[in-house]
Specification:
alpha/beta; long-chain-fatty-acid--CoA ligase; about 625 residues; single chain; about 20% strand
């Protein structure tokens, strides 16, 4: 996998004795030519993980590094303790039989143990290989086999069962280590390790060594590059204190942790920002008329002032300062971001409407853009340099090429720099597809630069819908426009590849089970309010679909017609649509771990519904286009 091989970048074992001559390798013990530059960050001498960690310990020795909630209290490790625990883990792995260039699989929610296992694997000369907690046993097998895992670290009994199911098909596996709870059954190769509990407990009463230390909350999947770079590597380099959220963070508990920790920086995937927006809107609806008026005024002032700031006009009018006192500070406090000076989003596209919502509350959300194959961020937005809808400017030491641009300057975005990965482990054909002969990494994303050098993503090559008429249509802008036009819509997916016209799968906003993450049948508060405004008495998704609720179906068609009126061509108009009984979710498999829409999964799951769009004889226009 890309992650597995890019982790090798950081392993001390990969300092080549003679410089590699190729830009890439797929071998576990391969070497690559470092992309050194004459000046700037690209000219800095390379460091191993051990060197980076040693430097951090010498600078931040007694500062807190990791904070875990145990029995209602925060148990903390200092940087010195963190470093020592990682070496203990490295020695443990070697004792258990870890061989050089073999994997240590890590299967669990974000925790100190996860970090320690990750770094311990690298210090011992192995690969640290994150495995998504939502993976099936078969998906776990694919990852573990691919990296020839000698050791797999699991959080609890539930994750252990997945590995026990596939253990007999992993010839390299020598040990399974469980850390989050006591082992329920004794068996060969199964070990229990508690690296942090005893050490952490003694230091709960320590005071922070530095008042201005950055503090972040770790909750995004650590097997994804975004959390890897932010929570482990950038945090280590800058001496950040990392607090671990609860395992149900993405099911609702994240805001509670944010309110308690009050982080100074926060990275949220678009779905996290959207969920916050929905919650804030539903709370706002219950406020008194006067409070709603004040909030609307403050949001208007906030949006206008911040849009002007984007254009370089930094003066703050009196009404903006008043709105800050009356509204913005209270909102930030309610979601735990009152100390947060850096709010970021990445990993998937975010709508302009969500960005404007937070900007109107004086919470500028900056976009990042990159890939696992580029070690995370390639472009970044900054408080003094950002534009709505742009992913910012290229990081110092990195380079961007727009490959084969069209008349509008749109082409494939390609990357170059020291951050480009070594290659896909054991996958030569895939690596040749990703990195061209000149060493450029092809992203598969389409985009363009504006006159000021800001990068705008316009779509994804593989996501493009190519109609029967040959028109290339990026789906995301149309999907976002429909969701914005019809506030009851939760998810929208455009279909119509090789077809004569476009159609759309729609889901409604509903209440989600806090324990399982499964979308329910009850409408969300925002959806209920929408229904009530239209005079509908519906309280459930099933009621709307079974009765083909006239008020709701008419409102949806009206919103889609409004979007169609702005379409640049007839081919880009949505001609038919259908409401699905269940919202998309991680639970149902339609969304990935970073809440990104898995289009092939949805297309397969609802293939019959999609086929029906194009086999029906009814005309693709007007009210009849809505299907029950």
């Amino acid at each position: 996998s890309a992650w597995c091989s890019s982790a090798r970048y950081q392993c001390p074992a990969f300092t080549p004795s003679s410089p590699g001559s190729s830009m890439w390798t797929t071998r576990r013990d391969g070497e690559v030519k470092l992309r050194m530059e004459e000046q700037g960050p690209g000219s800095e001498a390379p460091k191993t993980v051990h060197q980076l960690f040693q430097e951090s310990v010498s600078k931040y020795s007694n500062f807190y590094a990791l904070a875990s909630k145990k029995n209602g209290k925060w148990a903390k490790l200092t940087y010195k303790m963190y470093y020592d625990e990682c070496w203990k883990a490295a020695k443990s792995f070697l004792k258990l039989g870890l061989e050089r260039f073999h994997g240590v699989g890590i299967l669990g929610f974000n925790s100190a143990e996860w970090f320690i296992a990750d770094i311990g694997a690298i210090l011992a000369g192995g690969f640290a290989v994150g495995i998504y907690t939502t993976n099936s046993p078969e998906a776990c097998h694919y990852v573990a086999e691919n990296c020839s895992a000698n050791v797999i670290v699991v959080e609890n009994h539930k994750q252990l069962q997945k590995i026990l199911e596939i253990e007999h098909r992993l010839p390299h596996l020598k040990a399974i280590v469980q850390y989050g709870e006591e082992i329920k059954e004794q068996r060969p190769k199964l070990y229990s390790l508690t690296w942090t509990a005893a050490a952490a407990a003694r230091f709960i009463m320590l005071r922070d060594a530095r008042e201005k230390q950055e503090e972040v909350v770790s909750y995004l999947p650590l097997s994804h590059i975004a959390a890897q770079m932010c929570d482990i590597w950038a945090a280590m380099a800058l001496g950040v204190q990392v607090y671990f959220a609860q395992p149900d963070a993405l099911k609702g508990s994240l805001v509670e942790t944010l309110r308690e920790v009050r982080p100074t920086a926060f990275l949220g995937v678009p779905r996290v920002w959207e969920k916050m927006e929905e919650k804030m809107k539903s709370v706002g609806m219950k406020a008194s008329a006067i409070r709603r008026k004040v909030a609307a005024w403050a949001k208007g002032v906030g949006l206008q002032t911040n849009l002007k700031k984007m254009d370089g006009r930094l003066d703050e009018p009196v009404n903006f300062r008043l709105a800050r006192q009356l509204v913005y500070r209270k909102v930030r406090k309610a979601i735990g971001l009152e100390r947060c000076t850096k709010c970021y989003t990445g990993a998937a596209p975010i709508t302009r409407e969500t960005l404007e919502f937070f900007l109107s509350l004086n919470i500028p959300v900056m976009e990042l853009y990159g890939m696992s194959e580029s070690s995370g961020p390639h472009t970044i937005s900054l408080p003094h340099a950002f534009k709505l809808g742009s992913c910012g400017k290229v990081l110092s030491g990195c380079h961007t090429l727009i490959h084969k641009p069209d008349m509008d300057g749109i082409g494939e975005i390609c990357f170059s720099g020291r951050h480009v990965f070594m290659g896909y482990l054991n996958m030569e054909d895939k690596t040749r597809e990703a990195i061209d002969e000149d060493g450029w990494l092809h992203s598969g994303d389409l985009g363009k630069h504006d006159k000021d050098g800001f990068l705008f993503i316009t779509g994804r090559i593989k996501e493009l819908i190519i109609t029967a008429g040959g028109e290339n249509i990026p789906p995301v802008p149309i999907e976002d426009a429909v969701k914005n036009a019809v506030p009851i819509i939760s998810n929208a997916m455009l279909v119509g590849d090789k077809a004569k016209f476009l159609s759309m799968l729609l889901t409604l906003k509903c209440v989600v089970d806090a324990d399982t993450g499964e979308p329910g049948d009850e409408l969300s508060p925002e959806a209920l309010a929408f229904c009530q405004r239209l005079g509908s008495k519906a309280t459930k998704v099933s009621e709307i679909i079974s009765s083909k609720d006239k008020a709701i179906y008419t409102a949806i068609q009206k919103g889609i017609s409004a979007v169609n009126e702005k379409a640049v061509s007839n081919a880009q108009k949505v001609q038919k649509w259908v409401l699905l009984e269940k919202d998309f979710s991680l639970f149902g498999g339609e969304l990935g771990p970073t809440m990104k829409l898995k289009r092939p999964v949805v297309a397969q799951k609802y293939r019959d519904r999609i086929a029906q769009f194009y086999t029906d004889t009814e005309p693709p226009s007007g009210e009849p286009s809505a299907r029950p």
